[in-house]
Amino acid sequence: MIDIGQFCDNKKITMNKNILLTMRVLCIFFFLTSCNTSSQKVHTTGVDSTGEKANSAVQRVLTAEERAKLTPDQILQQFKEGNERFRTNNSTNRDHSAQIRNSAVGQYPKAVVLSCLDSRVPVEDVFDQGLGDVFVGRVAGNFVNEDLLGSMEFACKLAGAKLILVMGHQHCGAIKGVIDEVKLGNLTSLLAKLKPAVKMSEKFDGDKTSKNEAYVKLVAQNNVRNTIHNIRLKSPVLKEMEDKGEIKIFGAFYTLTKGELIFLDQQ
Ligand SMILES: [Zn+2]
After folding, report:
1. Is 74 found in the same domain as 46?
2. In what order do the strands lie in the sheet with 163-169?
3. Ligand 1 mean position to 259 CA, how many Å?
4. How many C-beta atoms lie closer than 10 Å to residue 171's C-beta?
5. Does residue 2 belong to any structural domain of this protein?
6. Of 45, 123, 133, 264, which residue is most buried, by most CB within 10 angstroms?
7. Which structural domain range is residue 28 located in?
8. Full-prediction pTM beyond 0.90?
9. Cβ-contact 222, 235 below 8 angstroms
């Protein structure tokens, strides 16, 4: 510490010592106050965020009793509300480790979703659903063949799901592929299954190419309608369940730009 008082007379030395002492006390006071405030802020923030996470994260999974009380329309409503949460960045906080443990003993999913392969459509996420909530079938172009129909029959008739949702999406590569008549290995026969959607869209007034987003959207939405038509046509099991009101079948179109689900009219 520099003793500036050594250059002054005794009176000034005494005065300067008093000023220095006061300044030191004030410095120590402000230092301690500052440390206390910042440590309180860090502590509070840490406790709040950790505490919230630990306390509010969903650990439970859907039970048989809870699912039994749900109607297909209520499940659809839950999906709509879940998409609203996802779209607005308010998705449910889930404790995945706990849900893994809690779902290991059994599953009671309320719905089966058929989606495209696209990496930008994370199915459970876009509905804000968790482990054990949804059966998911995925194939490029979200069409059905007997394997997917068999999977849906298992999901609904044997495992108790009450809603089938077929979900197409914006900017779908498979839809663009069928419009462009892409030929490549096994992809050729896959894309052939989407051709009815192109036929259903032949009255489109405009440029019918994969560069026209409005046309690609129409073909993608008609492809969802065609898939639903095929579910009813090729699965007497699911058709009967639908006729009895045990399940409902809906179509939706997911927009990559907004994360929004548009539910399609039935045909
Ligand atoms: Zn796609």
Report:
1. no
2. 134-138, 111-115, 163-169, 248-255, 260-263
3. 14
4. 16
5. no
6. 133
7. 8-56
8. no
9. no
Q: Where are the alpha helices (DSSP H) in the chain?
A: 10-56, 64-68, 72-87, 96-103, 123-126, 146-153, 173-179, 187-192, 195-200, 213-234, 236-243
| Same domain, yes or no: 257 and 166 | yes
Q: How far is the CA of 87 from the centre of ligand 1 (A)?
A: 19
Q: Is the domain of 158 the same as that of 255?
A: yes
Residues 129-157 have pLDDT tens digits of 988 999 999 999 999 999 999 999 999 99
pLDDT at position 265 is 78
Q: Tell me, in angstroms, the distance from the centre of ligand 1 to residue 200's CA.
A: 18
Find the mean pLDDT for residues 91-105: 83
Check whether residue 125 and residue 107 sit in a common domain.
yes
The rounded Å distance from CA 111 to ligand 1 centre is: 21
C-alpha dist (Å) from residue 104 to 60, 61, 99, 156, 225: 12, 10, 8, 20, 35
CATH number at residue 221: 3.40.1050.10
CA 226/CA 166 separation, integer angstroms: 10
The pLDDT of residue 60 is: 79
Token match 């026969």: residue? 189
Tell me the three state secondary structure of residue 28: helix
Region 182-205: mean pLDDT is 98
Measured in Å, residue 229 CA sits from the centre of ligand 1 at: 19
Please check whether residues 12 and 76 belong to one and the same domain: no
Cα(201) to ligand 1 centroid in Å equals 17
| Closest by Cα among 97, 133, 144, 138 to 120 | 138
**133-150 core/surface letters (b: 16 or more CB in 10 A; e: else):** bbbbbebbbbbbeeebbe
82 shares a domain with 24? no
